[in-house]
Design a protein that fits this description.
single chain, alpha+beta, 7-stranded mixed β-sheet, 55% helix
C-alpha cells in the first residue's frame, strides 16, 4: 500500500511495534533518572537506526550530520538547564526555547530561520460516575514541536498526551517516515485533533444528560437550583476546551495552504484534512457554549417560576389565615357592649361564618391556580 493511502491509517491506533531484537521501544521517562529525555532516535530511510546503547542528543546529532537521516528527540517537562544543551546543538531560537520550558502557551505556529515551532494543547476527558459542580471534565497538557531539516524535537508538559504509541505506529510505516520530520509533525497534529473529536463526543453526552435532567417534568429528589452549579462547571470546562481548539485553526490552515521549505509537498496537502476536522470540532465547541448558555438561562427561569409559585401559595394561605385572625382580633377586645357577645348562639355562628369564608377563599384561589 502506498504512503498516501497509509497516511491516515498510520496515525490511528494500531498494534505496538517491536524492535528487531524482540523488545519494545520504551519511551516512558523513568522515575529513577533525572533526565528529561524520554526517547532519542535516528531515522534513516524511514527506519529507526538501532544502536547498542541509548543515544544521547549530542551523539544523535553527530551521527545524523555524518550519515544523514533525521533525529527525533522526545522530552517531558525539561528544565532550562536540561534543554539549553539540546537547543544549542540545533540552534533553536531563544524565544521558542523559553516558551517550551515555561509552557502554558497558546496553540500557535512560528517560523524561526531554519525551524518551525508549533504548540499544541492536548485534551483528555476525565471519566466520572456523576457530574456535579466540582467535577473535572477535561484535563489539558501541551506538546511543543521543533521541526527542522534533519531534526524533530517534542517537548511535552502535563501527565496526558504521551506520544509513545504514536512513535510506534510511525515506525511501522517506513515509507511515511522517509518523508522526514514533516511527516512526524502531521502525525502529531492529526493525533491531537483526533483526541479533540473523542473529547467533544464525550462532552456532548454530559451536556445531553444535563439538558435532559433540567427539562424533565416532575423531577424529584434534586434540590431546586442544584443544576446551575453543574451547568456552570460544564461551561468552565468547555471554555478550557475552546482555548485549545480555536487558536490552533489558523496554524493548521497555514501548514495546509502556504508552501514551506520544511514541509514536504506530499505531506502538506494532508494538513488540510486536519484543518477540516479541527474546524468541525471548533463548531461543536462553540455550539456547546451557546447550548449551555440556553440551558443555564432555562434553569434559572425555572427556579424563578418555582419561587413565584411558592410565593403565591404562601400569599394564598396568608389570606385564608387572615380571616380567623381578624375575627379573633375583633372579639378579643375588652368591650362590655358588643353584638353577639352575650348571645347564646354567638360563638357557633361566628365560627361557622369564619369557616365558610375561609373555604370560599380557598376555593376561589384554587380555581385561579394559586393553590
Amino acid at each position: 500500500m502506498s504512503m498516501i493511502r497509509d497516511l491516515r491509517a498510520v496515525v490511528r491506533p494500531s498494534r505496538v511495534s517491536l524492535r528487531k531484537d524482540g523488545g519494545t521501544y520504551d519511551a516512558t521517562r523513568s522515575p529513577a533518572t533525572a533526565t528529561a529525555v524520554v526517547d532519542c532516535a535516528i531515522y534513516r530511510d524511514g527506519r529507526r537506526v538501532e544502536t547498542e546503547t541509548p543515544l544521547t542528543p549530542h551523539e544523535a546529532v553527530r551521527l545524523v550530520r555524518r550519515d544523514g537521516g533525521f533525529v527525533w528527540i522526545g522530552l517531558h517537562e525539561p528544565t532550562e538547564a536540561e534543554f539549553s544543551g539540546i537547543a544549542g546543538e540545533f540552534g533553536l531560537h531563544p524565544l521558542a526555547v523559553e516558551d517550551a520550558v515555561q509552557a502554558h502557551q497558546r496553540p500557535k505556529l512560528e517560523r524561526y530561520d531554519d525551524s518551525l515551532f508549533t504548540v499544541f494543547k492536548t485534551i483528555h476527558y476525565v471519566e466520572h460516575d456523576q457530574l456535579d459542580a466540582n467535577s473535572e471534565v477535561v484535563e489539558t497538557g501541551e506538546v511543543m514541536c521543533f521541526t527542522g531539516r534533519d531534526f524533530f524535537i517534542t517537548v511535552r508538559h502535563g501527565g496526558q498526551g504521551s506520544l509513545r504509541a504514536l512513535r510506534h505506529r510511525l515506525q511501522d510505516d517506513p515509507e511515511l517516515l522517509a518523508k522526514g520530520p514533516s511527516a512526524v509533525l502531521h502525525a502529531i497534529a492529526d493525533h491531537v485533533v483526533d483526541g479533540y473529536i473523542a473529547v467533544a463526543d464525550a462532552v456532548q453526552d454530559d451536556i445531553d444528560e444535563v439538558e435532559t435532567e433540567v427539562f424533565s417534568p416532575g423531577r424529584k429528589g434534586s434540590p431546586r437550583g442544584s443544576d446551575a452549579g453543574r451547568i456552570y462547571q460544564l461551561k468552565r470546562e468547555v471554555l478550557e476546551f475552546k482555548r485549545a481548539v480555536s487558536p490552533l485553526l489558523r496554524p493548521m490552515q497555514l501548514l495546509s495552504e502556504r508552501p514551506m521549505r520544511l514541509i514536504d509537498p506530499d505531506i502538506q496537502k494532508y494538513f488540510r484534512d486536519v484543518a477540516d476536522h479541527l474546524a468541525r470540532v471548533q463548531e461543536q465547541v462553540l455550539g456547546f457554549d451557546e447550548l449551555l448558555n440556553s440551558i443555564l438561562q432555562a434553569n434559572l427561569a425555572q427556579a424563578s417560576v418555582a419561587q413565584n409559585e411558592d410565593m403565591r401559595k404562601i400569599t394564598s394561605w396568608a389570606a385564608i389565615i387572615a380571616v380567623p385572625t381578624m375575627v379573633c382580633g375583633v372579639y378579643g377586645m375588652n368591650f362590655d357592649h358588643m353584638p353577639e357577645l352575650h348571645w347564646r348562639y354567638g360563638y357557633p355562628v361566628i365560627m361557622g361564618i369564619t369557616v365558610v369564608i375561609c373555604l370560599g377563599i380557598h376555593r376561589t384561589l384554587k380555581r385561579n391556580g394559586w393553590l
